[in-house]
Amino acid sequence: MRKSAVLPLAATLLGVLPGTAFGQTTIRYAHMNSPTHFVNAGGEQLAAALAQRTNGAIKVELFPSAQLGENSQITEQISLGGDLISQVGIGTVADYVPDLSIIVYPFIYPSFEAAQRFLKSDLIKELEARAEAAANVKILCYIHYGVRDLYTREKEVHGPADTEGMSIRVQPVPIYTEMVEKVFGGAPTPMPWPDVYSALAQGVIDAAEAPPVSILDQKHQEHAKFLIQTNHIMDISPIVTSASLFNSLSEENQQIFQEEADRACDSMSQASIASYEKGIEDLRSAGMTIVGDVDRDAFAERAGAIAAAFPEWSEGLYERARAIITAQ
Questions:
Q1: Facing residues of 139 across strands?
Q2: For the chain, does the N or the C end have fewer beta carbons within 10 angstroms?
C-alpha cells in the first residue's frame, strides 16, 4: 500500500468521518474537465439524485477544472480517506494495483460491448477488491470516456514512420508511456492535463492524444493542426471514492449511492459515445485537418509488445484479458 490509511482509521475511532456532520455526509465531486463537460453533467445528475433519494443525507458538491488537484493528487486524497468522488484515469488507480492498467491496453477492444463484458468479469472484480484492500479506493463504476486519437501541431500522420521521434504528451502513467515508445516510436512526455495547452502553443511537444471532446474542451485545436484517427485506446475511466467513506454510510444509502453512480456512469458513457463524431466535425469546423486514412493495423501490430514492459503484472494477465474480451 503506497499510503497508510491512518486518517480513515482515526476518523472511525472518533466516530466521525471526513465530510460527515450532524447526520449529513458532504462529498466533493472533483475532476479535471470543464463545467460544460459530460463528466460534470454526470456529477450534477448524481448530486441531484442522491439529495432527493437520501432526503439530503448525502450532499454532493462539484469542483470541476482541477480545482482540487489533478488525477494523482485526488486519487491519493481518496486513498487517505478524503470525502471525494472523482473521475480519474485508470492509471492513477493502477499506481496501487498495477494489473488495473490492462483496462486501457491499446487496441484491445473491438467494441464498447466487449469492454463492458470485460468490466463485469470476475477478473475485474478481483482487481477492484485489491484496490479497496490495498489503497482504500472503491471503484463505483466505469465510463466510456472517449476514443483517443493522436493530434499534432504541424505534422500529418498516416503510419508509424510518421510518428518516429515525435515528442508526445501522455498521462504520467506507464501504459501510456509504453504505448508512445512501442507503438508510435515517439518520445513520451508526461505532464499534467492543464499544462498541455501552453505546451502545444510553445512547441514544447509535437503532439498529444485524447478524445475529440477533450481536445475541444481544452481548446487544443487552437495550436494543433491535425487530428489523426488512430483510435488507439478506448478510454475506460473509473468513477472512484474512498472505500472507508462509502462503508461509513448506512446499508440503504450505500445501495442508493451505488445505483445512482451506475446511472450517472451510463449517462456519461452515452454522452461520450455520441460526442465522438460530433467532436470530429466540430474540430474540422474549427480548422483542424482530420486524417482518416491511417494505417491502424500497422500501429496495432506493435501493441502486443507493450505487455512485456510490465513484469509487475500477474502472470498471464494479458492473455486472460484477451480471452474474456474475444469470447462470444
A1: 240
A2: C
Whole-structure pTM value: 0.84
- Whether 181 contacts 220, CB under 8 Å: no
What residue type is assigned to position 110 of the chain? P
Read off the amino acid at residue 3. Answer: K
Are 301 and 94 in contact by the 8 Å Cβ rule? The answer is no
Ramachandran area for residue 250 (φ above 0: left; ψ -120 to 50: alpha; else beta): beta
Match 510518428 to its residue by C-alpha cell. Answer: 163
- CA pair distance 313, 102, nearest whole angstrom: 9
Nearest to 127 by CA among 99, 105, 152: 99
- pLDDT, one tens digit per residue, over 22-62 is 579 999 999 999 999 999 999 999 999 999 999 999 999 99
Asked if 60 and 50 count as a contact pair (C-beta separation under 8 A), the reply is: yes
φ/ψ (deg, to 5) at 148: -85, 135
What is the rounded CA–CA span in Å between residue 238 and residue 268?
11
Q: What is the tens place of the pLDDT at every residue in 182-208?
A: 999 999 999 999 999 999 999 999 999
List, in sequence order, the alpha helices (H) in 31-89.
Answer: 38-53, 71-79
Domains and CATH numbers, the chain: 6-326 (3.40.190.170)
